[in-house]
Structures are given as structure tokens and as C-alpha cells.
Amino acid sequence: MHPATFSIAAFDDAENELGVAVQSKFLAVGSAVPWVMGSVGAIATQAWANTTYGPRGLELLQAGHPPADVIDLLISSDANADQRQIGIVDAKGRSATYTGSGCVEWAGGLAGDNYAAQGNILAGPDVVRDMADTWRRATGRLADRLIAALRAAQAAGGDKRGKQSAALYIAKPGGGYAGFNDRYVDLRVDDHPDPIEELARLLELHKLYFFKPLPE
């Protein structure tokens, strides 16, 4: 099965936060696509997802390889690389995205400073373009910017098969509960008629419990 998916991996250098936001016509997309490690990198692995790309990719980033080289290393050992899609950003803001030639149209990605945006089985290229443009223009917390990017992608047509699940995963050193790990935000909507808006609702609850107020 090819989960039709769009995602964005991003880095907020001011707050040292790395994250992935994703939406898909696929059950529980948060269990497969996002992989993040504080001060290391954020990876979205999708299409006919090879979930080993997540932990292996983070290990390679941690060893100092830039995102483009990490992708080359991952796909070079994968006989089905033409059916994979991956986006990576590291804790230096470097990024890369890859879409195999066998991914179902429309499929593609854009990468720039601090972000990598990609998707497959989409309504068209505007989905990824608007996701990336919104990310670049948005201000405020990384979590809010990622939700804004997902909303823009959906407004541009999104996944042409429909909507089902969404996830937001952000890591920062000591950002987890009581500072014991880096899991700053880990929210999932596994099955919902409007998953992005449900994810946004959960984020507002998360802020009440765990976010410090922004400075005036």
C-alpha cells in the first residue's frame, strides 16, 4: 500500500527545535512517517515508506553526514528506492528531499533553508509549493508554523484520495515531560474526518499544559 501523504520537516534555529508535520489518507500516519531527534535532525519517510530510513537516517546525521548524503546512502542500499519518498532537515538547517520515480503522481518535493516539504498522490504541485511558501512566511512557534503549512497544503487540494490522519512531532533537548527526554510535542490524530483541524485543537491543549508563554 502507498499511503498518500504530504509532510514538512523543519528546524527552528532560534529555539533549537526540530519537527515533522504530516497528513495522509492512511491510518495512523504518525506511527510511520515522522522521526526526530533533538539537536540532530528531523526525517519524514513516506510513499511506500521504508521505516528504517528514520532511525538509520538519524544515526547518519548524528555521525555528521549532511542530509543530501544521508539520502544517497539510504537509497543506495534499497532495491525499491524508486518507490520511496523522504525529506530531511538537520540541526544546522541543511535540508534535502527525494522522490523516487515510481511514486504515484503527483509526487515531488521542495527543500530550502531549515525545511524540506514533500508529498505523493497529491492534487498537484501547488500542494507542496503552498506548504513550503507558508512555512517560509509564517512566524511564531515552530508548532504553529507547521500546522499552518499543513493547512495551506490541504487548501491547495492536499491528498487527492482524501483525509484520514495527521501528526506533529517536535523534539528539543530536555523538552519532554519533566525534562527527561527530547519529546517536546508528540501529537497524533489516527482516524478523523478533518485530521489537521483536530491536530490543531490538540496542539492548543498541549500548549496549555506544557508551553511557556511567548515573551511580549
Helix content: 25-40%
**Widest sheet, order of strands:** 7-8-1-2-9-10
Runs with pLDDT <50, length 5+? none
**Describe the biggest sheet?**
6 strands, antiparallel
CATH class designation = Alpha Beta
Globally, the shape reads: globular
Can you tell me the CATH topology? Glutamine Phosphoribosylpyrophosphate, subunit 1, domain 1
CATH architecture: 4-Layer Sandwich
Tell me the distance between the termini: 48 Å
Provide the structure class: alpha+beta
Radius of gyration: 16 Å
Number of helices: 5
Average predicted local confidence, pLDDT: 95
Query: What amount of the residues lies in strands?
Result: 25-35%
Structure description:
This protein is of the alpha+beta class and 216 residues long. It has a single domain, classed as Glutamine Phosphoribosylpyrophosphate, subunit 1, domain 1 (4-Layer Sandwich), CATH 3.60.20.10. The chain contains five helices and ten strands; from the N terminus they run E-E-E-E-H-H-E-E-E-E-H-H-E-E-H. The strands form two sheets. It has a six-stranded antiparallel β-sheet with strand order 7-8-1-2-9-10, covered by helices on one side. A four-stranded antiparallel β-sheet has the order 3-4-5-6, covered by helices on one side. A hairpin with a 2-residue loop joins strand 7 and strand 8. The model has no long low-confidence stretch (mean pLDDT 95).
List the helices and strands and how they pair.
Elements (H helix, E strand, L loop, with lengths): L3 E9 L4 E9 L8 E4 L3 E7 L5 H10 L4 H10 L7 E7 L4 E5 L8 E5 L2 E6 L4 H13 L4 H14 L9 E7 L11 E7 L5 H16 L6
Antiparallel strand pairs: 1-2, 1-8, 2-9, 3-4, 4-5, 5-6, 7-8, 9-10
